[in-house]
Amino acid sequence: MSLRKKTFIIVVVSVIGLILFVSATSSFILGIGFNYLENKGVQSSIDSARAAIQTENYSVDIATGDWAPRNAAYDFLGGTNDKYIEDNIGTESFENFRLNMILIADINGKIVYSQGFDLDKSQMTPLSADLLNQIKANPVLFKHDSPSSLTSGLLNLPGGTMLVSSRPVVTNEYAGPIRGSMIFGRYLNDKEISRIAGFTNLLINIARLDDPNLSSGFLQAKNILKDSSTVFTQPVNNSVIDGYALLNDINGKPALILQVNSPRNIYQQGRDSLVYFVLAL
Question: Which residues have CB under 8 Å from 71's CB, separation 6+?
Fold first, then answer.
């Protein structure tokens, strides 16, 4: 073989090797970058979903903020307004604030009034003994240190997960002494999640952490996630990626697994960019 031919072969092999090396290295580096951007996008979607759920909880807080500091409720718990329930709590009370539960408890945590409401059927429904017992098992709902106190958040109950809000019953002027607690609740059910998904333009699902029949994705997230500050991402296919995060209850303990489905636009863009880059070489 002539020297010129050997030199040509060496140059060709070297160029091909260099191209392969640069392609592999660039693909690895760019892949890391696009994966980072994709995960950041999923994190942003999770944050938006969390904020939307919190906003829904705020709307329940607004309701208790309107009802708890009232002379009429204060007098009811003081024993001087026997007509309070008849005059103030009706179908409109539940429908206007989209409530499924209204509880009133005295200063000792004894529930003196309890009522459930079916928003779909627009009718009063009794609250089960199991639900009431579960409410009572959360003393944080009945303890208020000041007239402006607020306990708010998620609570897993026998009938489903609720957005709950509890405020102390005081006078119109926020004067005490505190005579008890006003507790409102709204189920975070499929209909509510669909409503939240509608105004956030996100595909949102939730599952209870104590659900014995979790789907594979939720079960994997449960086993990986350790606290509410972390996010677990799992690509479903080349078009969709799931993000998971834990949501804490009113006691600061994980209660729900939040799932957000996101399109893999960044992944698709990254894959196309890598193809163009390799072809350019």
Answer: 171, 172
Structural contact between residues 170 and 179, judged by C-beta atoms closer than 8 angstroms: yes
CA distance 133 to 111: 10
Residues in the chain: 281
Alpha-carbon gap, residue 229 to 246, rounded angstroms: 8
Q: How many CA atoms lie within 13 A of 154 on its CB side?
A: 24
Which contiguous run of DSSP H or E holds residue 78?
Answer: helix 71-78
CB neighbourhood size of 64 (10 A): 25
Tell the residue number behind the tokens 């002494």, with chain if given.
177
The amino acid that residue 46 corresponds to is I
Using a cut of 0.85, tell me whether the model's pTM lies above it.
Answer: no
According to DSSP, residue 69 is labeled: B
**pLDDT tens profile 146-169:** 999 999 999 999 989 999 999 999
Which residues, in sequence order, are CB contacts of 115 under 8 Å at separation 6+? 89, 101, 102, 103, 124, 126, 127
